[in-house]
Structures are given as structure tokens and as C-alpha cells.
Fold this sequence. Notes:
By secondary structure, this protein is mainly alpha-helical.
Amino acid sequence: MESGPAVFAGATFALVGAGLLLWTSVRVRLREPVADGVDQTVAAAVTTLFGTALLAAGAWLFTLL
């Protein structure tokens, strides 16, 4: 019964994390700004950190099944 919300949250975190990592890599590869008004290196590092953390949280929630 409690695995339903865990699956939904895990899928959501995994999709958002993967999307953030994909978006960041495309922006960096095209040499476009990742965040407005922020150094590209810092913005890419922070978004990569958060994307990886979200992906890991999604994977962890899937292991709770």
C-alpha cells in the first residue's frame, strides 16, 4: 500500500534529475548560459550536483519497494 507514493516520488525525482542533467549538458556543449547572470562554470557545477542528487534520490526511493 505504501509503495505507490514511493514509486511516484521516485519516478518524479528520477525524471527531473535526468532532465536537469540533460539540459545542463546541452547548454554547456552549445556554450550557452546555464543560468542568467552567473558564471557558466559555477552554474554547471551546481546544476550537475542537484541533478545527480535528484537522480540518486529517485533511485533510492525505487529501492524501498
